[in-house]
Automatic annotation (TrEMBL):
It comes from Polluticaenibacter yanchengensis. Residues 180-335 form the Peptidase M43 pregnancy-associated plasma-A domain. This is M43 family zinc metalloprotease. Gene3D superfamilies: 2.60.40.2030, Collagenase (Catalytic Domain). One of its GO terms (molecular function) is metallopeptidase activity.
Amino acid sequence: MISGILNKTKALLFLLLSVLFVNRSYAQALCGSEMMQERLFEANPQMLSAFNKQNTDLANLIRNNRGISLNDGAIYEIPVVVHVIHTGQPIGTLYNPTDEQIIETIKYINEVYAGTAAGMSGGAGEMNLRFVLAKRDPNCNPTSGINRYNAGDNPTYVQSGVRNSTSSGLTDATLKSLVRWNRTNYYNIYVVNKIDAKDGTSGTFVAGYAYYPTNADNPQDGTIMLASQFKRGDKTLPHELGHAFNLAHPFSGSNVNTQCPANTNCLTQGDYVCDTDPVSYNISSAGVNDFSCRTGTNPCTQTPYTDNTEANFMGYTTCYKLFTPGQRERLLNSLSLASRASLINSPAKYPPASAPVCGALVNFNIAQSSVTESATVINSCVKYTDYTLGINLNIGVSGATVIQLGTDTSTRAIEGKDYILTTNNNFETPSKNITFTANKADTQYFKIRVFDNSIINGARKLALNFSFVSNPGNAAVGTAIPISTINILDNDKEPLSNTVNEKMVGSLLTRFSSTNHPILNITTTNGKAIVIYRAEELKAAGLSKGYINKFGLYATKVSTIPFGNITIKMATTSLPYLYNNGSYNFPSSMTTVASVSNYSVVNNLNAFNLSTPFYWNGESNIAVEFCYSNTTTGTSSDLFYAYLDEGTASGQIPFALSLSLSCNTDFGSFSYFSAPYKPTSYFGIVEDGILIETSVSNANQALAAQEEMFVFSNNGKLIAKIKNSDNFNYGCVNVQVVRSGNGVKGLNSSVAAEMVTDKSVFISTQNSNPDGNLELTLYYTKEEVDGYVAATGVNWNNTRLVKTKQAINTYSAGAVPNGDITLYDATYGTYGGTHYTIKANVTNGTGGFTVGKPALAVSVYEFTGNGNWSDAANWKNNLVPPAILAAGQTIIINPSANGKCVLNVLQTIAQGAQFTIMPNKIFEVNGDIKIN
């Protein structure tokens, strides 16, 4: 029997290395159990002896009907712990599934073993076995049954995960030595990132493996599962747990599809089950599997194939829907084995307060969580979200127990700035004490308010601990979760403008054959194909919303002549597939995005530039249609690369084609694979970035001491960046775009070169700081800058940052007093490659801001010579006052020693101007002074 296992694992390895792709055969997730079992037995002969003995014992129990009763209706519960061996990613990412996903997966396998899961029919139905997440850990602390372990510091695991059929990854023993709960009381399930360096998102891969129970101690006992396959509806976990409770593959004893297993005694040969006919292993001598349910005559019995083997969860088919009564009998009797009987009676199924009662322990409910800054509440500039967490006393004690929350030394988050912690629901005068009522097991809750600011400060760690204030019942600090770590994730990052992103969707592990489903076929006159790419896989490839301007296919060139005409169409759709077990669905309308004539296929990437870029919203699926019309046909079609869509199941078809339809003919019926294969594609998207604000708008954001923030309008568009280098808290900062446009306006002059940009900003602060210094960066679009340059003839890099006392829209164009204007030298940059920035250090950052090169009139004129007013040599810097002295301007009469000033012209003084005669100076008037 064991030699049979070894031979099949060699065949399995051949399959893993194979990329051959023929009609109705396809790659899928594979089981690696037999290879691991064989390796274990070779290293531990005593385990092989125990395995053989238990099979003999089970055969006798079943033969003599002395095992567990099959008719008492008892449901046996097995406590499980799910160890998520992640690599440091946040919970909810591919390698670190959420608690909800794990709980839902456990619910699904229980539905399978109850015979009630969707699609199940026939067979045994109820298997009388359930799996429950453990409620107490090995130290008697309360647990969710989900244990997360960060293996991100192990480069071998990060790169390759755990090894099965290759040398890539940690050994199974090494992985399980990282974390293992007592296998007497817990069945350990390990959720891993990769097996043999493959994560299950494309190609052919081992999805998981498990060990048969043995009477000898096996520290490697447990199930390994790829995180990508740990989900509702996936066959892998129910299959592997079948192995864990002594169920074998129905084809056990066969190495290839032409070999029938021995079956003279159905209890001791094959899969040890009598109501599963002997069947061959459905793999060809070339290493190619046919995973469809076989029909017709079974050559091993000369009777028709039955669902008991072909639709069995323990088989290698995609039409699984049942376990058999014989499998149920073998599984239930395996519960009498020492390594499984202890699980039935394990206290791990019960919370610590239930019998057997544990000691009094206090633990947080959650060991680690991540929260992202978000503004579910906005109170002017204060934006925050409140989160609720819990801490648990597992059993009641004699008196009221009071603890006080605190922070561990590893905490990097700043209280009052990043968060506020309260146990009394009062964030103004928060408490940190929690009281557990006497004689009561209880969970008490507290809140953390996480502030959403506009500061780029990265992730901050908040590690909560606690101490006892009063402890009459001698409760102890638990060892399960004595510290609760909350990672506060920053939602702010350096804003980027529209960027080009180009990604492959799928893989280059296999190809459609030359006669089987080429998306473009030079051997036919007309052809049409349609494929749906799901939003999830586009996002997983690293694509975001924006305009698709390129689309491509990967191929090995075979054709020798070009295609006549190719048309590409696209549509967004909610349809995840085109065909679902008998039901056809197509997008209602599609947009022509490219038409190409006389195109020759090339090796590798065939990229088409879209004449009409197609907008993808980042959430909908995308349907892509190809059609062609060849004036001349060839003899051999090109080989296009394909991949398996892991997000769909058998019978759900995302790709269809016809080798006869023209572009203007709708699909009626179509050809398709029974597995969800589709062409590997290339998308080029000009992704939406952060846009620059060009409209009148408003923003309120808080700016504390020594902080830098990007300012976004209420439209979510970028206005400015403000850096505060002072130890001053400005409080709420209001930033408004008060004037918009791509042209220019007069400031204090109607001369074109002295005008300023239409777009102007006004900044005010809650707390004023006349001595403050801010670094201000304003963002302008290419269109705004081009408009300014065209109107003024001034190069953008020769401008200055212009500040006015009031908002610029409150002044009349061309009539801003010089005294209200301050000019700052600036530095210049670009944003997103085509747009522009201007940056300057400004004093007292409140006021209006615009950009230009205004020529300010001199505001102070000083007479320092001797003689006539009109002689420029008598004026400082040779600057003679204008005939009309404007508001904000000043004349100072300060003749030289022993000199005098003689006014010999008409001088008008406007309201708001100043005229000063210094003490003991001579001023003689021969002209006229007029006061307006």
